[in-house]
Design goal:
Blueprint: H1 3-13, H2 32-58, H3 65-71, H4 74-99
């Protein structure tokens, strides 16, 4: 097959009367099921917005830290206490490391050559 024959075949196969441009027999026809889905989704969005609005109206304007701490569950309080104890222990270890062992001062070390 030569190039001319291939071009003729392609041009004949995709002629202007056969190419519908993606618009077949059912183009533009929507089903009642699609309309029903759109209506159901619209109702769901409206109900969700109303529910969220009600919940947002219940929120206080400003949050009080003391009330939040009192209302926190026991496990949260235990976790915060453990974190505070861990930070305190790390601070003590850091203070011990900075002070160094007793009797060791900066000038008493071996001379560097």
């Amino acid at each position: 097959m030569s190039t001319g024959e291939v071009t003729y075949f392609v041009a004949q196969y995709l002629g202007p009367d056969q190419d519908t441009g993606g618009q077949g027999q059912d183009f533009g026809k929507s089903s009642p099921v699609g309309l029903l889905l759109l209506v159901v989704f619209g109702i769901a969005v409206v109900l969700l917005v109303r529910s969220m609005t009600k919940h947002l109206k219940k929120l206080p304007v400003a949050f009080d830290q003391d009330k939040a701490a009192a209302a926190a569950p026991a496990r949260v309080k235990r976790a915060e206490a453990a974190r505070a104890a861990r930070e305190e222990a790390e601070a003590e270890e850091l203070a011990k490391a900075e002070s160094g062992p007793p009797g060791d001062s900066a000038g008493d070390g071996p001379a560097k050559s």
